[in-house]
Design a protein that fits this description.
By secondary structure, the protein is α+β, with helices and mostly antiparallel strands. It has one domain (25-224). The protein is 17% helix and 46% strand. The chain contains two helices and 15 strands. The chain has helices at 4-19, 232-259, and strands at residues 29-35, 38-43, 61-64, 72-74, 77-85, 94-106, 113-122, 129-143, 149-158, 161-164, 168-171, 180-183, 187-193, 196-205, 212-224. Strands 3, 4, 5, 6, 8, 12, 13 and 15 form an eight-stranded antiparallel sheet that branches. A hairpin with a 2-residue loop joins strand 9 and strand 10. The radius of gyration is 28 Å and the shape is globular. The N and C termini lie far apart (83 Å).
Length: 260
C-alpha cells in the first residue's frame, strides 16, 4: 500500500528546497589538536567517537586529559583541556566560546601546538544576515621557557561569508612564571549569514622540553542591532496627514456656512 504520509513529507521537503528555505542546522562542538603532521579530534559527548574521549558528558562542554585519568599524550606533548560553548547562542545577544583552558607540558614535541575549538549552529534566535562585533582574548598563568608565545585567532563563518578577529599574542619573559593577558581589537559591524560557526584557535610556540604552559582563551561574537530606516514614502505620508486633516476640516466648515 502506498504511504501517503511519506509522499507528503518528501513533497514538503522538495518544496522547501525549491523555495530556498534553510534547513535546521545541526549544532556541534569539537576540539582539534594539530602539531606538525599529527592531528586529533575530540567531539562533544563522544558523538562521533574521536581520537580521545570527552570526559564531560554535559552538552556543549568538553573536558579531556584531566581528573584521575591524567593528561593525554599527543605529538610529544602532555595536555589537558576544558571548554564550553553557548550554541545556538543567546537570543538577540552573543555567541560565546568561553574559558577554553589548556594545560601543556612539552615532553618531546618539536613543532608548535595548535588547539582549535569549533562550535557551529549559532543563530542567536535570528535569521538571514546580521551585523556582529568579533573579538577574542587570551591569558596565561604560566608560559615557562624563553621565547615561548601563545596567540589566538577567532574566525566566524556563515553560509560562505567569513570574518576573522586579529591575531594577538602573549610573550613569556626570559624564564620563570608569568601571568599576562591580551585582547584583540574589536572588529565592528561585520556581516555574517545565519547559522554561523565560530572557530577559535590557540597556538603555543617555542615551548622548550619540559616547559609548561597554562593558557585560557575566549572568543565572542556579539549581535549588533541596527536601526531600520523608515521608507521615504511613509515619511511623506505621515507628514502630509495633518495637512489633509486641516483641508477636510476647512471643507466641512465651508459646506456648513453655505447650508446656513
Amino acid at each position: 500500500m502506498y504511504n501517503f504520509g511519506k509522499f507528503a513529507l518528501l513533497a514538503l521537503l522538495g518544496l522547501a528546497t525549491l523555495l530556498g528555505v534553510p534547513t535546521q542546522a545541526q549544532a556541534g562542538y569539537k576540539v582539534v589538536l594539530t602539531s606538525g603532521s599529527s592531528t586529533a579530534t575530540i567531539y562533544d559527548n563522544n558523538v562521533p567517537v574521536g581520537d580521545f574521549s570527552d570526559t564531560n558528558l554535559t552538552l556543549n562542554e568538553i573536558d579531556f586529559g584531566g581528573g584521575g585519568g591524567g593528561k593525554i599524550s599527543f605529538a610529544g606533548y602532555q595536555l589537558s583541556f576544558s571548554g564550553s560553548t553557548n550554541s545556538p547562542g543567546a537570543v538577540d545577544g552573543f555567541a560565546f566560546l568561553t574559558s577554553q583552558t589548556i594545560s601543556v607540558q612539552n615532553v618531546s614535541g618539536n613543532d608548535p601546538l595548535t588547539i582549535t575549538a569549533i562550535s557551529d549552529g549559532f543563530t542567536l534566535g535570528l535569521s538571514g544576515s546580521i551585523d556582529v562585533d568579533v573579538f577574542n582574548s587570551v591569558s596565561t598563568s604560566q608560559l615557562k621557557g624563553s621565547g615561548t608565545t601563545a596567540s589566538s585567532v577567532t574566525t566566524v563563518t556563515g553560509y560562505g561569508s567569513t570574518v576573522a578577529a586579529s591575531v594577538h599574542g602573549v610573550n613569556s619573559p626570559a624564564s620563570g612564571l608569568t601571568s599576562a593577558s591580551a585582547s584583540s581589537p574589536e572588529l565592528s559591524l561585520l556581516s555574517v549569514a545565519i547559522p554561523f560557526e565560530v572557530k577559535s584557535a590557540l597556538t603555543i610556540s617555542g615551548l622548550p622540553r619540559n616547559g609548561t604552559a597554562n593558557v585560557t582563551w575566549t572568543a565572542e561574537v556579539d549581535f549588533v542591532a541596527t536601526a531600520v530606516p523608515v521608507p521615504a514614502g511613509l515619511v511623506l505620508l505621515f507628514t502630509g496627514l495633518p495637512v489633509l486633516g486641516t483641508g477636510a476640516w476647512w471643507a466641512r466648515r465651508k459646506n456648513a456656512q453655505k447650508a446656513n
